[in-house]
Design goal:
Number of strands: 0
Distance between the termini: 20 Å
Number of helices: 12
Strand content: under 5%
GO molecular function, one term: peptidase activity
Helix content: over 70%
Order of helices and strands: HHHHHHHHHHHH
Shape: globular
InterPro entries: PrsW (IPR026898)
Pfam families: PrsW-protease
Keywords: Membrane, Transmembrane, Transmembrane helix
Number of domains: 1
Radius of gyration: 24 Å
Protein name: PrsW family intramembrane metalloprotease
Length: 437
């Protein structure tokens, strides 16, 4: 008879984290829902966009609260047997693929709703659904054929990422941005003419009557300065990717003592990255409702893919190192690859969006013109394909290793097991280790 395992520190930490996070998120959702509905009344005479933004935030906070409730529930319920989980995994991928097919007409509906008088009623749920479906699909692609996490552990990882990783990343990003502003301010004080031009521009800046020629001239002046370009690149393609890739798999560290297999680290990392990307996308869509939402919804699928792939790769590297300390090189390589993917994505994204091309080696020689065709526009789709190739390729590799290990276990092979041990320990299906964590 198996003795009962008492819950340990991780169980209680997650209980407090998920319970408090759910209460806070649902409270914020209710507050913004009431404020948004109040703004739709004719008595206040407020723009429709204000109410839509508040309702978008309400639905986003509501989604976060529901995820944390599911994470809380997974801590308390008795998990099903492994066979039931394997069958559910196949159904999940089929359902997620069907949802992704239906996502395409939903994008068209998104555009129609944004311009309708009832935008405040229909757009907020569409924002949540439109952002969540690609995240779900990418997670199912990452864990296709890899039923390696205990049932409910996925909700725990998602909830931890939303409750802990996102706030910590936001705080540290603000600190990093403040340092950047200070450094930039110190440098601008040594450039009186550029500082005067910037002050004049912002004093005359009117979003309703934006002068594109004036904006392009100012951007050309700023981006022709090598010091400012170096500072911007160091922030966008240097410090930001290094910080975010370091923090995104934070939820996995709670399970480092479980000696996660590489496959578990890969799937868990994908969940961490998808949670981070989903939050970013929902934040970007908070202001949807004035015709720009469709472009944001579609374009940010690439960012979601980047975060899912990069953190899945890093999760694989982390779990490999935790299982076998000799895999330090794999961990370092995985982190550098994740940072590199993120850095180039950010760099090409900025270069594709600015109205002028910065004076950089190689890039400044491209035959680009905003009025015709910019070759840099091809960089982001190319990076997206590379990320998808990495996600699918590493998944297939881990599937092969999983099948090999399970076949060896069934046949009673007594030969030394490969170091990339990817099958799950059946006694860990209740999500608690021997210490109740």
């Amino acid at each position: 008879m198996q003795s009962k395992v008492e819950p340990g520190w991780r169980f209680w930490l997650l209980m407090v984290l998920f319970g408090g996070g759910a209460a806070l998120s649902l409270g914020v959702a209710l507050l913004f829902l009431l404020l948004g509905l109040a703004m739709t009344t004719p008595l206040l005479a407020l723009p429709a966009g204000s109410a839509v933004s508040f309702l978008n935030i309400a639905f986003t906070s509501g989604l976060v609260g529901v995820v944390m409730l599911l994470g809380l529930s997974s801590l308390l319920r008795t998990p099903p047997p492994p066979a039931a989980v394997a069958a559910a995994s196949r159904r999940r991928l089929a359902l997620a693929s069907l949802a992704m097919i239906l996502w395409l007409p939903l994008v068209g509906l998104f555009r129609i709703v944004e311009t309708s008088p009832l935008v405040w009623l229909f757009l907020p749920p569409l924002v949540v659904i439109g952002a969540a479906i690609p995240a779900w699909w990418l997670v199912e692609i990452a864990r296709r054929g890899l039923d390696v996490l205990p049932r409910g552990r996925g909700w725990q990882i998602l909830s931890t990422s939303l409750a802990l990783t996102i706030p910590l990343t936001l705080v540290l990003s603000l600190v990093m941005l403040a340092v950047f502003v200070v450094v930039l301010g110190v440098y601008l004080n040594t450039q009186p003419q550029l500082l005067a031009d910037l002050q004049q521009f912002f004093e005359q800046f009117d979003p309703a009557q934006m002068d594109m020629q004036q904006l392009e001239a100012l951007a050309n002046q700023v981006l022709s300065n090598p010091v400012i370009v170096a500072l911007l690149i160091s922030l966008v393609a240097g410090v930001t990717p290094m910080l975010e890739e370091l923090l995104k798999p934070l939820a996995l560290w709670l399970y480092a003592g479980d000696r996660l297999t590489p496959a578990q680290g890969f799937v868990g990392g994908a969940l961490c990255g998808a949670a981070f990307g989903l939050w970013e996308n929902l934040s970007a869509l908070a202001g949807a409702g004035e015709g720009s939402g469709v472009l944001i919804l579609v374009a940010r699928v690439g960012s979601l893919l980047l975060h899912t792939t990069a953190t899945a790769v890093l999760g694989w590297g982390l779990a490999s190192f935790w299982a076998q300390r000799r895999y330090l090189g794999r961990l370092i390589g995985a982190y550098l690859l994740a940072v590199g993917l993120h850095a180039f994505w950010n760099l090409f994204g900025v270069l594709s969006a600015v109205p002028v091309t910065p004076q950089l080696p190689l890039i400044s020689r491209l035959p680009a013109s905003p009025e015709t065709f910019n070759p840099l526009w091809l960089a982001l789709p190319g990076m997206a394909l590379l990320n998808l190739f990495l996600l699918v390729g590493l998944n297939r590799r881990l599937q092969v290793e999983t099948r090999r290990m399970m076949a060896a276990a069934v046949s009673g092979d007594n030969s030394p097991a490969p170091t990339d041990d990817t099958f799950i320990k059946q006694e860990n299906w209740n999500g608690l280790d021997s210490a109740g964590n």
